[in-house]
Amino acid sequence: MTLSAAYRFGWTGQLTGSLLFFALAPLFGMPPAIVLVLLSINLLYQFWLHATWIPRLGPLEWIFNTPSTHRVHHASNLEYLDANYGGILIVFDRMFGTYIPERRDLPCRYGLVTPVDTYNLLTIEFAQWRTLWGDLLAARSLSDALGYLLKPPGWRPNGGGETTEDLRQQATHPMVRKARNSGTG
């Protein structure tokens, strides 16, 4: 990760809800100027988080999102998946069990769990959206559709998907995968 990574903006990044949140905030009484200030503070804070040369920062890591905790957020190592969501504060990750500290013995590996095998920008940007849309169209109930939107990545209504928790179980208990694939478990 580099500092320039902090200021990149994906084409579809605003579809994930942050734009909606900040657009609706004034409707609930937050002055638009405050919304812009908060957006600016968050963007400025993101700048230093993407520096790989900054080491762990001791007690600050209990409260704030630091470069170390943010490296874990971007890592594709199984041990680090689905962690450290906080933008500025990390306390909520600690409260809700999504905090994972960076380990000295396990360097962060950046990238996707399933690598993209193309250089086509449209495919790179929209492949995950296409998959999600296909899942939503195939959902047999509103409950299933909401599951695709709100449950962990890899979730399937029939239990046949592989979430991060499933992958971790398989890594620590290889027989779980064998039983699951053979239909005996």
UniProtKB/TrEMBL annotation:
Residues 2-98 form the Fatty acid hydroxylase domain. It is a multi-pass membrane protein. It is found in: Endomembrane system. GO terms for cellular component: endomembrane system; membrane. The chain crosses the membrane at residues 20-45. Residues 157-185 are annotated as: Disordered. Keywords: Lipid metabolism, Membrane, Oxidoreductase, Transmembrane, Transmembrane helix. Residues 175-185 have a biased composition (Basic residues). One of its GO terms (biological process) is membrane lipid metabolic process. One of its GO terms (molecular function) is iron ion binding. This is Sterol desaturase. It comes from Burkholderia puraquae.
